Predict the structure.
Amino acid sequence: MNILEKDIYEEKIDELKKYIKEIKGTNGEMIASLYKGQEIFGYISEDVKNIIIKETMCSSKKINEIVEFNGIFTKTLKGKYHIGVCLGETCCKKGAREVLKNVKKYLGIEIGEKTKDELFSLDIIRCVGACGLAPVIVVNKEIYGGNEVKNIEKFFLKIKNKK
Ligand code: FES
């Protein structure tokens, strides 16, 4: 890491710590901190986990469980837009497998892969509690569902236009 990269890295650490301080004591501070950590760093690194453990007093066991079993969080650096297709029961009943097939075809990648331009990465996720919108796709932390994910070309055009 050169000096500039080190400065940027430290700025990111400060940003995460500042955020945690602002939400300290609120309900769901751990999840919100993980989301923020992933937003800032692109993934949940050991440093991110250690900051959250230290600043929120949450146990490392709990944090590891959430990062491990919640498909929204990733332990490796993903694309700018991390696509999570929900394969929970309700989403599957509403056509999530077809949505996943279309996403894979459109992006030309498999689950766990990243596009060559590093813009998109793809994973499957479990129920995110938005079953009313099924089938659901989560892009970073934004939830999309229903008709808006059924036309995949239109959907990705919308995501790309948000850049
Ligand atoms: S099953 Fe997909 S959001 Fe609940």
About this structure: The chain has two domains: 3-69, 81-161. Residues 82 and 121 are 5 Å apart (CA to CA).
